[in-house]
Design goal:
Blueprint: H1 8-22, H2 25-38, H3 43-55, H4 59-72, H5 77-90, H6 93-107
Length: about 110
């Protein structure tokens, strides 16, 4: 595996390949973690890692990672939609509705 000094983009691409192409969330999370260690503000990797964690039913970790992305990129409605999905999967409809409302407001430009 490439873990030495490969560029951040290569790690992100590897994570995406494992997550989306192969369906191996464990390996995807390893690569997304490496990207975030190298670039702590890489919100695309945080979002993808949050989704991968959610697929693994690790909802609290998923929500925490997605909220971290939202702190860096607070105007991205997709982040809030993904948080809403994670809360729905966790069974917390109230929080899911709260985050879906935030996503809708951002999408509407409010």
């Amino acid at each position: 595996l490439l873990m030495g000094n490969a560029p951040v983009d290569v790690y992100r691409d590897m994570g995406n390949t494992f997550a989306q192409g192969i369906g191996n969330m464990d390996s995807a999370i390893v690569y997304y973690t490496k990207v975030i260690q190298l670039n702590p503000k890489d919100t695309p990797s945080m979002i993808n890692m949050g989704i991968a964690l959610g697929i693994q039913k690790r909802y609290d970790e998923s929500i925490a990672m997605l909220q971290r992305a939202a702190e860096i990129t607070p105007n991205d409605p997709n982040i809030f939609r993904n948080i809403a999905i994670a809360y729905t999967q966790k069974g917390n409809r109230t929080k899911a509705d709260e985050y879906m409302s935030k996503a809708s407001a951002l999408s509407a430009g409010k």
